[in-house]
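User: quick one - fold this with adenosine-5'-triphosphate bound?
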Amino acid sequence: MLRFLAARIAMLVAALATAALVIFLVLEILPGDPAAAMLGVSATPETIAALRAELGLDQPAARRFLRWLAGLVTGDLGLSYAYRVPVGGLIGERFGVTLPLAVLAMLLAAGIGIPLGVAAASRANTRLDAVLMGVSQLGLAIPNFWFGLLFVLIFSIGLGWFPSGGFPGWSAGPGPALHALILPALALALPMAAVLARITRSAVIEALGEDYILTARAKGLSRAEALVRHALRNALIPVVTILGLQFSFLLTGTVVVEGVFALPGLGRLLIQAIGGHDLMLIRSLVLMFAGAAMAVNALVDIAYGLLDPRMRPA
Amino acid sequence: MIIVENLSIRLGELEIVRGLSFTLAPGEVLGLVGESGSGKSMTALAVLGLLPPGMRASGSIRFEGQDLLRLSERELRAVRGRRIGMVFQEPMTALNPVMTIGAQIAEGVIRHGLADAAGASKRALRLIARVGLPDPAARLHAYPHELSGGQRQRALIALAIACRPALLVADEPTSALDVTVQAELLALLREIRDETGMAMLFITHDLAVVSRLADRTLVLYGGRAMETGATRALLAAPRHPYTHGLLAAIPRGNAHANPLRPMPGQVPELDRLPPGCPFFGRCPKGDALCRDVPPPPVPGASIAWCHRPEAAP
Amino acid sequence: MMRALRHPSFLVGAVLSALIVALALVSLVWTPADPGRMNILARLRPPSAEFWLGTDQFGRDIASMLMVGARNALTVGLVAVGIGLVLGLALGLLAARADGTILDAAIMRLLDFVFAFPIVLSAILIVTLLGPGLVEAVVAIGLFNVPVFARLARGAALQVMRRDYIRAARLAGAGPARILLRHVVPNIAGLMIVQASVQFAVAILAEASLSYLGLGTQPPAPSWGRMLSDAQTFMARQPFLAIFPGAAIALAVLAFNLLGDGLRDLLDPRLRERGA
Ligand SMILES: Nc1ncnc2c1ncn2[C@@H]1O[C@H](COP(=O)(O)OP(=O)(O)OP(=O)(O)O)[C@@H](O)[C@H]1O
Ligand SMILES: [Mg+2]
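Assistant: Sure. Structure tokens for the protein plus adenosine-5'-triphosphate:
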């Protein structure tokens, strides 16, 4: 197991390094001089050169890339062009919004989607099943930011139960922060819950048809016990795969939904960075998002081993 | 101890099993023989009340003073696994791949309140040793994929007898295995029967297997009884042309599992059976009477449902 | 054919997508009003006989903008799926033909890597590179459809190529290109069409997200996603602004998802029975 873990982590690190290289190269061919762009038309060649030196842009590309890689480990990611503050600090600050948002959304999606999928499977081909699958089709089709807008319309503007945007920070305790995160998390979670419900349903239906379910029933287990104790654990294997794949959609979803709810998270930071042509910030942010998606995929591989003994290396 | 009378299993219009009757005494082994699709598995599942959705059983299955066909689901659950154990055909798929062997054996014991988790685990260990798996302590925590086919079937047997049932239903437990493993398992089942005195309904399509294990045999075709009697007598002098054909199909000197193909032709579809004897289309002796009138049971050295039984020798 | 008419998701999907296509086509020659004309006197109106679905903050007719927006969405879907399908099919067939070689492995690893980047994130990166705009967004979405089609094409092609009649054709002297085009492509076409329908829906959703962020379709071209981002400022005063464009997106995505599901069932009835 340890060998497997080590190998998987090594693979992850290699993938991350490749991603970093690709991102760096892509942004390197970007036309335009960020220093010139920041200083505007009145800048003299001397002030531009000074700023280039300050930002380290006068160094050769290879050295800048290596410095960035080292910075990813130490946290020293350079200065944001636009904000003139360290990128590491900016990202750390916004992390406290996006991470809880993503985790909350993931929990909501699993908490809604998996039980509904199990319910549909255990009543397969009944009216309940048809209704649940119809609703999940709708859930798949509705973009998360429209869910967000509708929630704001109904629960904030209409009923006044929730703030329509903004984030009070964690200093006032988890209550107000979670209150501000719950609608955006739900908006992110619903389309994902729809996917999970559909996958769970077909996985459970497939598992319920397996011979070991008959063995379990022959032991004296009820249908429900056989479902929970035997079918579900097997059905979770494909569900976890999808959960991992969905996580990358969730991350990009945060970019959009943070916009809807004016949350000061990584996603909004990314959009602002793109608007401000803030390359230092963009490259680290994009790598963070891609890296998070890759890390979750690695976690899924490891979770496989826990869920499915056949995948465990001997 | 179990008396099955006039058991019929229907799926809508289709009669998968018709009017089947048999009995089993404690410690007795009844072999249920027939080609693929003859209704053996459905008969076994009817005994446990686990027929696939849509199938209905009628008649009666009297077991320990109750009619199993009239029990509620809750009452049936108390019988399943506790008084009647079942071993399935496919050792590769009948065990849950994500649960340890020990946990799967212990589950029924705990479910029926015979022991707590620790006690059930100890019992599972003893059972694993009893069915002859090597290194029982390790097997307790092993997963199905770490066992060979024969070992898994042993684990399934341990699982089925974990609550010391009075009746074991075994649906082709050895068909998927090679001959030597098959012989070992048959010996194991015989030993367990001798030790515990449990009765066994043993399903197979292999007359050679029946001859080694079953006290009595019931031959099934198209969901109907063809012939029944003491195994020895039945095999020595079959009275039904179908049984005759089955025996003739066993290659001499090599009596291991071969798909039964006693006569030219296929088992007909259940919805295309003639009104009379289901074997009519393939029977060398069939005539108009056989086609139109269901044959009555004809007593003799065995009972044969046939208008033209072989005379007793 | 009769089976198709009785299949509920196919039927609903086909009718809805036909409706959207029809609206988009009609918008080429006629809309209820000029979608670009601003009218200060008729700002933020609710639906009425004059403005069927109301007006926006500039007094533009929402119904007309949605119709033109449908054209925009369908174009995005068509081009993005076209790019993904053509390149994906080519790469997938190439990999299948080179089955087991380094070329095959190289193509598949490259596609895995592209696939690991979430679609909108990739689009953001490309848009950063090329500047925001419809063309850039569509190219980005299209490129990230490539791995989906390539994987599918490779898997299906490998299955087809193992069949006996392909061996027979090869023995009869047919060249690899001929075998791929005459025998393999027709056999996997159904599968690719099903996936195209699903990816069409994905593309519409992705373009809506990008345009909502201001990275896709640029003004004044009407786009459902951008209409929603404009609506956000004014929806407290006129909630309809936020409702109709979102409903249009959901309906279009639903239509092509259902169409894909229906086609899949009709092509392979076994899948439906397994509940997939
Ligand atoms: N789940 C099911 N639904 C509908 N019909 C079934 C089902 N299972 C079995 N049957 C039908 O019931 C009949 C009897 O099947 P059964 O499984 O009892 O045969 P069998 O004698 O056990 O055959 P085998 O040797 O192949 O196991 C067959 O005609 C079969 O097609
Ligand atoms: Mg059977």
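One thing worth noting: Residues 253-259 of chain B have pLDDT under 50 and may be disordered.
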